[in-house]
Design brief:
D-Maltodextrin-Binding Protein, domain 2; about 40% helix; five-stranded mixed beta sheet; about 15% strand; about 350 residues
Length: about 350
């Protein structure tokens, strides 16, 4: 029996017109409804407004990958990983796409969700500067002014990065700005660079300025932790494991397909959201995202395959930075029940 048959079997057992799943959509214990074709109507809230990282979801819908797994997927914009995590925990949406540090911090606070698989496994955290800035290596950061956003994971772990490259916090002046303000400050020359996600702000700045960007990646200094991935509520995982599994398998297939044809994947996003960046920015963002889909422990495996040692490393880094609880174990935050095949 294939996975789609496993999902649709409860329909036949329950009788014509019955709901396919008993998940948490719309609140704990509420049913996940079917569309006219008998597929589960599923909502996925992103971590932010759509950008290049999200191309696989739109491509997967266009190519019928989610439909093949019995899923009618609706993609919703988010307003930050914390809000997405809380929306999933409260049953306002079926699934979420969120940054692991935010997910872990919310779980520590009692939000009833778990990661079902991280896809961005190499952190995109990086110091981002213009290629002509003269900042080519970490030691060149000494005496510079870098824009940060207090409280986010790249900023909170920046001291760990500086320590890893042999610098002191006092070697770099940090200017606290919101995400949009950071980009504006770099473009106007008010700061020498910014801290953020290399697959997000960098391509945006490059497109607006017409200049190449240079990335001093945390991972190049040996500092790595998990980033964005799929989350589900504990209720959904308990009551609807078949649906969770199908979504994970479909998402993995969609990421593989999008990596094989980046241009087609980005084209599938056209016109889907008024806040979406231009096509060339989306292309750059998705191509940078492809570089983040594995670690040494998961090299050669399908997207979304998680390794216990990477989770352990993530917990060690983030707890050391005060972003997650000390003494937590992997199963506090993640279930390996839905590893992609």
């Amino acid at each position: 029996m294939n996975r789609k048959t496993r999902i649709l079997a409860p329909i036949a057992l329950a009788g014509a017109g019955a709901l396919a799943f008993a998940g948490c959509a719309g609140g704990s214990g509420a049913p996940v409804e079917e569309n006219a074709e008998g597929n589960a109507s599923v909502t996925l809230m992103l971590n932010w407004y759509p950008y290049g990282e999200h191309a696989p979801f739109y491509y997967g819908v266009e190519q019928g990958i989610f439909e093949e797994h019995g899923i009618d997927l609706t993609i919703e914009a988010g307003q930050g990983s914390t809000k997405t995590t809380q929306a999933v925990g409260q049953g306002q949406v079926d699934f979420g796409w969120a940054d692991s540090p935010a997910v872990m911090a919310n779980i520590d606070k009692g939000v009833q969700v778990k990661s079902t698989g991280v896809f961005l496994q190499t952190t995109p955290s990086a110091v981002q500067v213009f290629a002509d800035s003269g900042i080519e290596a970490p030691e060149d950061l000494k005496g510079t002014t870098i824009a940060v956003s207090a409280g986010d994971a790249p900023t909170t772990t920046f001291p760990l990065y500086l320590e890893a490259v042999g610098l002191q916090e006092s070697d770099v002046k940090q200017q606290n700005l919101d995400p949009a303000g950071k980009i504006s400050a770099v473009l106007s020359g008010q700061v020498d660079g910014l801290i953020g996600f290399a697959h997000d702000q960098g391509p945006t700045i490059a497109a607006e300025s017409g200049k190449e960007m240079n990335y001093l990646r945390y991972s190049d200094a040996g500092l790595n932790f998990y980033s964005n991935g799929m989350i589900a509520s504990n209720d959904m995982i308990e009551s609807n494991p078949e649906l969770v599994d199908e979504l994970m398998q479909a998402t993995s297939e969609a990421f593989s397909a999008a990596a094989e044809d980046p241009a087609a994947a980005v084209a599938a996003m056209e016109g889907k959201d008024p806040q979406m960046p231009s096509a060339d920015v989306l292309q750059g963002q998705w191509e940078e995202t492809i570089k983040l889909l594995e670690t040494e422990a998961t090299a050669g495996q399908v997207p979304g395959t998680n390794a216990a040692e990477d989770w352990e490393s993530t917990i060690e880094v983030l707890s050391g930075a005060g972003l997650s609880a000390e003494g937590a174990t992997v199963d506090t935050y993640y279930t390996d029940e839905f590893q992609p095949e």
